[in-house]
Amino acid sequence: MRGDPTRARRLREHGGFLAVLACMVLMPRPGLAAAAPHEQTNTMTRTHITKESFHGWPNTYRLSNGLIETRVVTDVGPRIMDVRLPGGPNLLYLRQSEAGGGGEPQWVQRGGWRLWVAPERRETTYVPDNVPCVVEQLGGSTLRVTGAVEPASGIRKQIEVALDETQPRVRLTSRIRNVSDHPLTYAAWSLPVLRPGGRAFVPLDIGPLTAFDAIRRLILWSYTEIDDPRYRFGNRLVQVDHTRIGPAAAPRPGRGDDESKIGVDSSQGWAAYLLDGVLFLKRFPHVAAGAYPDGGATIEVYSSHEFLELENLGPLTTIGPGDEIVLREDWWLFAGVTVPEAEADALAVLQAHVGRTALP
Fold first, then answer.
1. 92: how many CB neighbours lie within 10 A of its CB?
2. N or C: which end of the chain has fewer CB within 10 A?
3. For the chain, what is the domain count?
4. pLDDT digits (tens, 9 = 90+) for 80-95
């Protein structure tokens, strides 16, 4: 898909003033973030937004509705560093040695969730996100966080995080705006980094059995070993068991022995991770006519001894100056879930939850 000139013109006409204002006025100086009330509650919902310190980041915003909560770090990013059931542990992984940091000249892993662009390139994907963001609270239940302009990639990232009024759901809207003077082609790439010790689930499609061109892709990275015990390849489901990953050993060139990555071209719009009885379920759109990166991958799972990444991607899209890519996704948490290993039984449990969580 290419950028629509009419749409781009509308964006410039109606959003140009605000974009300039955000770049010239709202962008905080190093070490500062835009001011916001200490706590704001939407009286029409159960959602609370509270500013607090989190692992050394003083400008962190906690969103909670009594059923689910999440923390958005704004001293760097945009980054989401925490998602949990109230009173439960964080499902996202946080690298403690990098917590509370900022201002580094190079990209830093840190953990949590981040928004990237594909194809994966050092000069565009790994642009550092180590400076403060602009923060806005919208209507008492939504937090909008805008990152700094990235000259190397020609974009500016913005996320909106909102909680459902009555359900354990986080709605995440990611925007990648072209702030350069020429067209750019990227795919939005959502990367939650999850704590170790769980199982990831990725659905596989089955097309018409009599069609000659009904193919499905299982994509393997060069450092992936097909007989790796962490993988359970079924006909309709791939399971990645983090407990079966060996300890980090002597690295091979460029990669450690514990690292592995796969991708699939699933059109089903979901992936999940089960950790200590809590199911983290992601729902996201699929564009049937879209050209997806990495050989057609819509879902990718990277895993190492340290953590697991449950990634989803949008299609490659060409955007003109002032235009943007938008990726919407929902995160759900369900407690007390057990998923059997047998594929049919596992799918029955997973599909029951998927059926309750359609992405509008």
1. 22
2. C
3. 1
4. 999 999 999 999 999 9
